[in-house]
């Protein structure tokens, strides 16, 4: 009997997308998403595979991070899973607390755009940036 939560066969697309984003640690897998939403991972794998289409956006996010002096984007390294969750669940509203550099926000919005429905509500405290580029003490 096959497992409902198998490893996603979309690893090449994920690997390329993670490279474009500038973080090899952003390796997505459908298993934990499937367990969280109670779905078969085979329904989520194609949604994770869509990240290949996001590569131009990911390249731009990475470029802007480097331009602004950021070498990373967050401690939560699951932007592709967030995209897949939005695509799968098709929420009318997403409430995000803590925006940091906007990587999660971008993936929420890309999922909403692809779904053609939904709204993102983001809440964060303002950050006082001391110079044009983030220094080690500036990065949230």
Automatic annotation (TrEMBL):
<protein>
    <recommendedName>
        <fullName>Class I SAM-dependent methyltransferase</fullName>
    </recommendedName>
</protein>
<dbReference type="InterPro" id="IPR029063">
    <property type="entry name" value="SAM-dependent_MTases_sf"/>
</dbReference>
<feature type="compositionally biased region" description="Basic and acidic residues">
    <location>
        <begin position="121"/>
        <end position="131"/>
    </location>
</feature>
<feature type="region of interest" description="Disordered">
    <location>
        <begin position="121"/>
        <end position="140"/>
    </location>
</feature>
